[in-house]
Amino acid sequence: MDSAVIFDVDGVLLELTAPEEDIFFETFRSRYGIKDLSRDWDSYRTRNDEDIIAEILDTHGQPASERAPAADHYVKLFAETLAAGRISPVEIPGARRLLSQLMPQHAIGIATANFLSVARQRLATMGLWAPVSSHAFGAEGGGHKRQTVARAIAATGLPRDRIVFIGDNLNDVDAGLSSGVHFIGFATDPARRRRLAAAGARHTAGDHRETEALIATLLAPA
Length: 222
What we know:
The protein is 48% helix and 13% strand. Helix 9 links the parallel strand 7 (182-186) and strand 8. By secondary structure, it is α/β, with parallel strands linked by helices. The protein has ten helices and eight strands. The mean pLDDT is 95. It has two domains: 4-15 and 90-218, HAD superfamily/HAD-like (Rossmann fold, 3-Layer(aba) Sandwich); 18-83. It has a six-stranded parallel β-sheet with strand order 5-4-1-6-7-8, sandwiched between helices. Strands 2-3 form a two-stranded antiparallel sheet.
C-alpha cells in the first residue's frame, strides 16, 4: 500500500474510562502505598506511561530498579481486572466502521502513550486490534508523543505526505506537525476541537464520518 493512517487510541478509537485509569494508579497504592496522585495526565513531565511511572517513583523516593516491576504490575493487574469483567473498554462511535473502510486502501497503525500490551488488551476486547496491529507502537521506549509517532512513521516505510496521523490532544498536534505528516485533530466536543485548531491543527473532525472524508481528501491519489 502507498499510504497509511496512524491513530492515537484514547479519545480516537477508545474512550479512556475512569475505572481503567484507576488500575494505573492502584499499582502505586497497592505496591508502594503511594496515594492521591494527579489524574491530570498533562501534569506529568512527559505524557507517556513509561515516563509517568518513572516520574512518580522518583518523586516518592523509589529506586530506578522499581520501574520495570511497577510497569509489569500494572500490565498484569489490568489483564486480571479485564478478564474478571470488572472493566469494559468503550469504543468511540464510528471507530469500527472507519477502520473497516480504511483497511482495503491504507496501511493502519497506532501510536499511543499507553503501554502497547495494555492497548492491545483493550482493543482486542472490542475486536479492533487486528486492523491496527501491523504498525502498533506504545509507551515502550519512553519519550514524547512525537517520538512514538516517529516510530510508527518509520515502520510504514512511506513518504510523510502519504501518512495521516489522528489524535485528540495537544501533544498529538505537536507530534503531527513536527513529524511532517498530515494531522487530523479529533474530538466530539466543539470546544476541544477549537483548542486543537488553535494549537495548529489545520484539519479537525467531530465524528468519524468527517474523519473518513478528510482522510480521503488528504490521501487522494496524485
